[in-house]
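thoughts on my protein:
***
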Amino acid sequence: MEILTYGATGVQGGAMARRLAGTGHSVHALLREPEKLGALADRGIHAVGGDIGNRESVEAASRGMDRVVFNLPLVFDRETGLRWARNVLESAKAADVELVIFNTGSIVPPWPTEYLHLDLKRQIIDIADEIGQPMISLRPRLYYEVLGEPWVAGAILEQSTLAYPLPADFRVSWCTVEDVGAVAAACLDRPDLAGTGIEVGGPAALTGPDLADSFTRALGREIGYYPLQVSDFEKGLQQNFGPEVGTVIAESFYYFETLGPEGMVIPEAAATADGLGVTLTSLDDWIGSRSWGDVEGRE
């Protein structure tokens, strides 16, 4: 099977590319700079020169592919995001790609919203339906990997506080990017699931204090939970990463607040994963698999 991936050098796309490479299929990664494939080349992944924004290069990369695995890069305007998505999906359709697997990277609102980052994913799913391209969408909630970012892990290690922009009583079906990659790999042989959205979560829905308790067990000292105000979270992001990035990331959390304490829970996450032959990773196991001695330079 020939598989084309998008976003293979990112955290989410990289996890998916690694899992796909382990299936024994031929995996190709579309990259603007093929020399940046790095360690993925050692796993047998082939770099294909191209740009998601360039229709001709996407069409060329799609020819001869049996599957496309698609992660949308962070985008700051709707028109650009939709154009990129049409490049991918319409090129796949023209090349007779049997199945596209689209990782939304987030919850997908069932109705139009003002939140670009989330609403764009809903529109991309609609495009696939509109043009008749068979597609499975993977819909995780939040990733454990965020907890390893310096802006979260630094406070855990230095201040014994896990600060995050969710109310303490909100339960979330957190998961690891590796498990989303495993679900994507399992879907390669499931074209019968085209047209469906698979909600991907971890083995348990966790509150903020639950997250802190896991770190307490792993680090051997008390870690508390502090619910950041989303507005404060947004200001911090804007200061560190610029106004556009800060706004796009923070808007998801304004939407999460509208869902209420149970709105980010996936009740059937474990059963769904089991049906695909995927064993989900607990937060305790994920924390235990990482080194917490030095946060600097962490992905």
Summary: Residues 2-140+177-200 form a domain with the Rossmann fold fold (CATH 3.40.50.720). The first strand starts at residue 2 and ends at 6. Residues 99 and 191 are 6 Å apart (CA to CA).
